[in-house]
Fold:
Amino acid sequence: MPFKKLHPHIKEKLQQFEIETPTPFQAQSIPVIKSGINTFCFAPKDSGKTTTLILTTLHKLKCEANGNAPRAVVLVENKERALELYDAFLAYTKYTSLRVYVGYEQLHIDVQKSEIFMGVDILISTPVTMNKLFLLNGANVSQLKILSIDDAEFLIRGSIYTALMSITQSIKKCQYVLYAEKTHPKLKRFESYFMEYSKTISM
Structure:
């Protein structure tokens, strides 16, 4: 049972939200992601991908703040999705010391740099904004443990693909988890770059 082996705070939250049983996708994916290997997660809408992303991120960070540099990065398509995911994370991180920060193109990059500098555990951003932060030394990734990509279909577009490749080249070592509804040759091409030795969960 994947939920039974999660951090006690997460189990408490799941109980509070009356989530007792993992979806088939969660039952398969959570143990694999927890093991620390790079993972492709392909499953249809409403199969529990977003909740899996949140639970495995919190478990990886042991539900507590540590240091000032981001230890988890979540890349999303746009501002709307970034804010949605931020709210979803807050529901689970309430009453923990974890610091969640959200960044996007419309927010001035200098504002983001100074706010991130104050200390962040989980950074939610778009690839273009994240790449800008990297180029301006606005996000220290030396402590990064996990980078997740939510609804990764958007990466198929050229400019975003380039930004992602630039980001991953700046990261020395971390676990990558990519979520999408279905596979695509461009997504699988990442196996040759940063998703090496990955496992694929497909529903």
Observations:
- Residues 79-93 form the longest helix (15 residues).
- The beta strands are 39-42, 72-75, 100-102, 122-125, 146-149, 175-180, 199-202.
- The two ends are 18 Å apart (CA to CA).
